[in-house]
Design brief:
Blueprint lengths: L8 E2 L3 E5 L2 H4 L6 E6 L18 H9 L6 H9 L1 E7 L12 E6 L9 E6 L6 E5 L15 H8 L7 E4 L6 H8 L3 E6 L2 H13 L4
Parallel strand pairs: 2-9, 3-4, 3-8, 5-7, 8-9
Antiparallel strand pairs: 1-2, 4-6, 5-6
Amino acid sequence: MTELPKPFYKDDRCTIYHGDCREILPLLPRHVLLLTDPPYGHGDRWQGGTWGAAEMYKDAMKWDSQPPSEETIDAALKSAKAAIVWGGNYFRMAPSRCWLSWEKTSRMDTLADFELAWTSMDRPCKAKKEDRNPDGKRVHPTQKPLSIMQWCLSFAPDAQTVLDPFMGSGTTLVAAKLEGRQAVGIEINERYCEIAAERLRQGVLF
């Protein structure tokens, strides 16, 4: 790929590209903040209770079978001046003084009680308590609460451009738009591009 593809969706704040971030990232200008939640590589560990039988999680077992390569993570990190990467504990990252923790107030025996985000920031570690699904029924199996992504943005108040190369259902972009920032998302699954675009069009939380 030698030039950016036509955006899947674009408005005055947000742009979505449908494709492989490994091909699109080198064509984008450098952003101020990388805020993303890549696949962790859980694969068939997506199981437990009745929720594990839902169609949404069967799909997750496929695209979450392998985590992004070290080269892909490095390319994402180089695409922005500062970075917040959820699931950073699953990847080989540089030592960091600032980790973010989302403590889930609704507990389930078969799911993690909290999640960690690696950051490139030189500041104390911080934690936030939030329910698993405060925005209602999820449309993506690893969908982060909108409040969590807005919380992340609060650590980079001057970051007017935000990039998410593993966009999923677009929560990063919705949060950025609500905060008055510019954002670019990349997603390889066209169905999730459609969901993210609809969320941005309607300005709703689903």
